[in-house]
Amino acid sequence: MAKPKLKEHHINRDWCKGCGICVEFCPKKVLELDKQDKVVAVHFTNCICCKLCELRCPDLAIEIETEL
Amino acid sequence: MAIKDYIRERFFPHIWCPGCGHGMVLNALLRAFEDLAISKNEIVMVSGIGCSARISGYVDVHTLHTIHGRALAFATGVKMSRPELNLIVPMGDGDALAIGGNHFIHAARRNIDITAIVMNNRIYGMTGGQYSPLSGYGTLATTAPFINIDHAFDVVELAKAAGATFVARTTTYHVKQMSELFKEAILREGFSVIEVLTQCPTYFGRKNKAGSAVDMVKSFKDNTTPVGSKAKLESPGLIERGIFVQKDLPEYTREYDKVIERAMKKR
After folding, report:
1. Chain A CB contacts of B213 below 8 Å
2. Which of B73, B121, B75 is nearest to B99 (CA)?
3. Is residue A62 within 8 Å of residue A12, measured between CB atoms?
4. What is the tens place of the pLDDT at every residue in B213-258?
5. Count of structural domains within chain B
6. Is A31 helix (H, G, I), strand (E, B) or coil?
7. Contact flag B19-A57 (C-beta cutoff 8 Å)
8. Number of domains making up chain A
9. Domain range spanning residue A34?
10. Do A60 and B4 touch (CB under 8 A)?
11. Which domain holds residue B35?
12. Most CB atoms within 10 A, among B41, B47, B64, B157?
């Protein structure tokens, strides 16, 4: 299977509570919290689409869209 | 269906605290539904009272929010009348083993086809951090400000002894394993118990200086080991996770059908 290619990080800022779980467990350190404690995909070019952030998010606030 | 199709979006963001493990259980459960491509009409989720019980409010399946500790009793009623439905009962540690302890062991003994999820955060979060039967010796809680001298239940051992035919344990760090276990439990017939170690950073974490939600999730990674691993022999303090019991015994509603059949013949 070909490697999935990132299309976009969909982050729901209204649902994100800034717990930092996705930031900590991202293997490529793609994510950071901004001044308002909301997650932002700062280094999105490093994303390998493993979706661990999406699977671990307690608030269902992050979703990785990949190209088919 | 996408996972968003299984939730009631109008109730989001949910009421759980930032970093609460219960949200991660909800996430894993939704992914299990998605992978099984199960229809919303085939699932009934029944919960009692507590932070954990709020989970039924957020899923767009048939849901019942019932009384403290009695979720399994209500679920038994639903299953007896509609055996074709998939019953899922998410409970907190106090809900399942203190208030609902009796319902828990007897549902296990009957082997009724229900998936019981014990979301074990070792504290009563909603009411202000009282210790639960799973807090464990030496922990601190609002109601044990000096030290808790009660020993904890081992959910896996208890479920095994009570006769559950599928018993497993996982943590919120191991989200993929959690989804897999949920899927297995939903598909199989009989009483399934899955204990999920979840973090309560607000009460258990603060009282016991366990750090942030992130630190607590990391501790689940560091303090658990797959069942039957070598690491357990070397450091017996590790908590095992995985499947502990998987056996086939006659399921309760099917056995009850036989009773009905016998009774009808006598008429």
Report:
1. 19-21, 58
2. B73
3. yes
4. 999 999 999 999 999 999 999 999 999 999 999 999 999 999 999 9
5. 1
6. strand
7. no
8. 1
9. 5-67
10. yes
11. 3-266
12. B47
